[in-house]
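Long-time lurker. I teach an intro course on protein structure, and each term I like to show students one example going from raw sequence to a predicted 3D structure in token notation. This year I'd like something fresh instead of my usual example. Would anyone be willing to generate the tokens for the chain below so I can use it in lecture? Attribution to the forum is fine with me.
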Amino acid sequence: MHKKHNQIITNWDDAYENGAYIENASTFPPLWNQQAAGFRQKMGERASLDVAYGSKPRQQLDLFQPKGEAKGLLVFVHGGYWKAFDKSAWSHLAQGAVAQGWAVAIPSYTLAPEARIAEITQEIGAAIMHAASLIGGPIHLAGHSAGGHLVTRMLCSNGTLSTHKATQERIKKVVSISGVHDLRPLLKTRMNNILQLDEAEAITESPALQQPNHLAEVICLVGENERPEFIRQSELLANIWAGLGLETNLLIADGKHHFDVIETLATAEV
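-- Reply from a regular --
Happy to contribute to a lecture. Here you go:
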């Protein structure tokens, strides 16, 4: 008999604390900004920056186009626990898909506490629909951390795109990188002072607790060296949604942690 033991979590702030467990964590954001700015400059006229998808200041996306007609659209949604970062730090993650002939949209969105997570979900749906109106063909979604949550929300029967079938049906693949798919543990963290989640919203906004209404391929990618809670969150969605009829894959990236697992996007197959 083989016994698998899940450690009881008593410190939820520590369970979701990434930087303290990553060597030289503070060097990553400046590096991302530098790489992103370099990629935008390299793209030149094939980069359309600050494209509005709504009327609020942060409802903008950057669109990077390949040479020639695009094979389809990849939308990448950034993380930061719904309360940090914007699109400008992640432009370089588009280079792998652009090199393969895909257009890539990277949206910003209103951050907590100015927006609740349910409102952010609505904004990402609007960003995807606007990008889809600009680029034809299949749509792939990818998101990191909070962004992994936001892209998997797009497949839920109570999601923003559930009433926009023409766009949703174009979604063929969703990649959640280190995603958070059950939000209820966040109720026990200090960050909830900013997120302002209550139990009802945590349930409604948790992909793992919702019924998917579109059968796209779902990939849950997580780093081998991430906090155990992020590995559990990825295992959770891949397990539950497989039981609801989706093709799901759990990929654990050797030697990667929460801040460098996203590097695979810059060169990965779309």
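Some talking points for your students: Residues 87 and 108 are 5 Å apart (CA to CA). The two ends are 40 Å apart (CA to CA).
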